[in-house]
Amino acid sequence: MKRIFILAVMLTMSALYLQAQECNNYWAIVSPDGNYLYFSSDRQGNGWDIYRVDIDGSNLLHLTTYNGNELYPSVSPDGSKVVFQYGDYGAGAEIYVMNSDGTEVTRLTDNSLFDGSPSFSPDGQKILFSAWDNDNYPEIFLMDLDGSNRTQLTSLGGAYWNSAPRFHPLGEKIYFQAGFNADDHLASINTDGSGWIDITEANTFGYSEANISFNVDGTKLIFLTTENLGYNNGSDLVMTNADGTNWTYLSNASPGEYFYQASFHPTNGKLYMSYLPSSSGKWNIYTTMQDGSNMQAFTNCSLTGLDEVVQVDMVRLSPNPAREMMTVEVAAMSDINHVEIISLTGQLIQKIRWTKTTSQEVDVTTLREGVYFCRISGKNATVTQKFMVVR
Fold first, then answer.
1. Would you say domain 2-12+306-389 falls under CATH 1.10.10.10?
2. Which terminus of the chain faces fewer neighbouring Cβ atoms within 10 Å, N or C?
3. Paired residues of 369 in beta bridges
4. Half-sphere exposure of 229 (CA within 13 A, CB side)
5. How far is Cα 219 from Cα 290, in angstroms, rounded to an integer?
6. Measured torsion, CA atoms of residues 111, 114, 118, 123, in degrees rounded to the nearest 10
7. What is the pLDDT of residues 339-389, one digit of tens each?
8. What ranges do the domains of the chain cover?
9. What is the spatial distance between Cα 230 and Cα 239, in angstroms, rounded to a whole number?
């Protein structure tokens, strides 16, 4: 009777954890090849971490696990590196770079001043970022991939600030947010800091344009604007020509609703957008077509995948619950690459080499009693099944 009670409690707790958990998913960045989406999420409950997921929503990979917040990922042109900001806006913010699978994390800046909002140059050889250095407000900087040759490109001083820079895809211009107090607009400069051009008009207090994203060839630009709703009351996404002309609104926000940031997919015609409804108070990532139509939720709070379809009939785990050995049986799956055991908190516990065709035994004697996931990755599907270990 005691064993039955324990099993029931464990099953109930795991079901409630998976179904009731709420989280934020924020700052969507599509990889240059269109195969992955990178974003920040607080789904683990210990600050914001960076995640990677296949563009169909499967195969969630937890890339950073530090105490604190990892924000604003940017992917190198060849897809091999991710640069990001560690820490919030303030003197503790620094810039790090890692491989696209989360390995070989390297700190690039190390000082008591703000360094953040990093992005790669089109050739992948430089990193743009915002920093304070000798000013009280951020300016635009450029450095090499190893953090050397730190070069300041703008210097307005006073309460003027320049932030969140992005290279134009052709590499000849740098776009950024230029502002005085709370009235950001968009501007561009040459790569040496000369040739300032206002892309959008300088705003009166409380109106802003921010969060720049280009399409592949650089002919189109997406950014947010608060011109319809005013400061701190919501924002819309706008698509324009690269010179700021021909505004086309992609959203029509209500008060308190934020269409905040979008990333172009290179081939499928979609945008991947950070969105905050006025009702929920939680950030999530949605997809839309590039005209703003057909808006659909992309993220949830799953710890093993986003919208991963669990095709129960394709995999059978037995016995379940298991004590020592568990048999994994597969049907209608071909060319299985590997089997992964994942904890309830999304951590990879064990990676098992698949040597059989339709079934294989897995040793679970090293696992503690609890709830786990078994994820099987094959050529035509990825299937995740929940199982339990009892002692």
1. no
2. N
3. none
4. 21
5. 13
6. -50
7. 888 876 667 788 888 877 788 899 999 888 887 888 887 765 667 778 888
8. 2-12+306-389, 23-297
9. 19
